[in-house]
Design goal:
Length: about 450
């Protein structure tokens, strides 16, 4: 056996080991080059087999007949750019006359098999130009977020999408969101990633955790207000509604609608105000919305109506005042009572982990996309953290948040505890941040009776 043969065997063995144990490294070392060559070599034949070609123009046919030349072949979309990424390939195509984005989207599975890729998705960049993202391996099996992400005010990375792109939670683009997930579906990990992303920002975090605070109170050092019972939640939401009214009065006094003020400088929300006058934005995290909507007595029913009314008001009017809602729950349906459907209509962002029933999936995506409903109910139990994310535009994709332990989230919140602003309206609900025992809710448990 020659030295060349030995070296070749070692390279092949190393590539196989990398592909099995470290698929990301294999892709960067070998996979990207091989996949790019495979796409370029097979491109014309694959496009023809998938029905993504158009007949040649009439003048080409006439010219071929006049000059007695062979008839031109059908033409596929023209490749404008082929760019490798850390998870796959990005192919930018210029469509031929008569083609549209739906042709590419309908052929995604056929392209995936033909090019031997793990996944293929497409989106329209502009009229006549389509971007096809192909992933070389299962990026959601072991989520690794890129070292650098495009963070800015009120925009944080929370998960990785199936096409290898980062999934961001952008509050200025999508102010309010609904997150659903059954027990052990990964919903709590998604919430921790959200808090971890918001912790370094200049934002006030407000939590409502009716499970006696077991989910959010460990993170209390970064929160400006916390409620651990429906009664406290009702008072906290009323305080937020009062704060919203005060912010609107501030915007009204600072609108600057005189004739000499340019249109772009007229204030309509807090982001149009000068930095020194801008109120601190507030993100409200509700851990289990069903606990706020359930009732057993007339008094609890009145409290429930008060809570849901306050949530609907914040969802309808809170964006301009810089108050954003993150509603989470295991179950979300019309049986939770009046106002729930109205609240759902204001929650533009939708994320669904594994669900126990199809009705919750319909409440999340029924008004967005039937395909998203089907994808949500097909999430297997063993893939914790896998979720379907969509919005009112009708688009959706699979995402998975990187695993963040409670200890990691607690350490991060403690590191940025000094960024938790003191808001006068929410001062009565400020959690105690002394010792660990101080974070436990003050309500005493009733003794068990036989």
């Amino acid at each position: 056996m020659t030295a060349f043969t030995v070296a070749l065997v070692l390279v092949v063995a190393a590539a196989g080991l990398l592909r099995w144990r470290l698929p990301a490294w294999y892709w960067l070392a070998f996979g990207a080059t091989l996949a790019a060559l495979r796409v370029l070599v097979r491109y014309r034949s694959v496009m023809d087999a998938c029905g993504l070609t158009v007949p040649p123009a009439r003048w080409r046919l006439s010219l071929a007949r006049a000059t007695n030349r062979p008839i031109p072949e059908p033409r596929p979309p023209r490749i404008r750019r082929l760019r490798p990424t850390r998870t796959g390939l990005v192919l930018r195509l210029k469509l031929r006359p008569g083609q549209d984005i739906f042709d590419i989207a309908a052929a995604s599975d056929r392209l995936r098999h033909s090019f031997s890729m793990f996944g293929v998705t497409s989106r329209e960049v502009r009229s006549g130009v389509v971007e096809v993202r192909m992933t070389g391996y299962d990026v959601l099996k072991r989520v690794q977020m890129p070292a650098e992400t495009e963070t800015r005010a009120m925009r944080v990375p929370v998960a990785l999408r199936e096409d290898g792109a980062v999934h961001y939670r952008d509050y200025r683009a999508i102010p309010h969101a609904l997150t659903l997930g059954a027990t052990e579906s990964g919903k709590s990990v998604y919430q921790r990633n959200l808090v971890a992303g918001l912790a370094p920002l200049d934002v006030a975090l407000v939590g409502i955790d009716c499970k006696q605070g077991v989910e959010l109170f460990p993170l209390a050092r970064r929160f400006s207000a916390l409620a651990d019972s429906p009664d406290t939640a009702a008072e906290l939401l009323d305080a937020l509604v009062a704060r919203m009214a005060d912010v609107y009065r501030l915007i009204r006094t600072q609108q600057r609608i005189t004739v000499d003020v340019p249109d772009a400088e007229i204030a309509a929300d807090i982001w149009d105000l000068p930095d020194e006058l801008r109120p601190t934005p507030v993100v409200v995290l509700v851990d289990e919305v069903a606990e706020l909507a359930l009732y057993a007595t007339k008094e609890e029913e009145r409290r429930r109506d008060r809570i849901i009314t306050a949530l609907v008001r914040l969802a309808q009017l809170g964006r301009a005042a810089g108050i954003y809602l993150e509603i989470c729950g295991q179950r979300f349906g019309s049986e939770l009572g009046k106002g729930i459907t109205m609240l759902r209509a204001q929650l533009t962002g939708r994320t669904a982990h594994r669900l126990n029933d199809e009705t919750s999936a319909n409440m999340a995506f029924g008004d967005i996309s039937p395909d998203a409903v089907l994808a949500a109910i097909q999430i297997p139990a063993e893939l914790r953290g896998l979720a379907i994310a969509g919005d009112a535009s009708g688009g959706w994709h699979r995402i998975r948040a990187p695993h963040t332990s409670l200890r990691q989230a607690v350490n991060l919140c403690n590191r940025y505890a000094d960024r938790a602003p003191d808001l006068p309206e929410l001062a009565p609900f400020r959690p105690t941040t002394g010792t660990a025992t101080d974070l436990v809710p003050s309500a005493k448990a009733s003794p068990a009776t036989a």
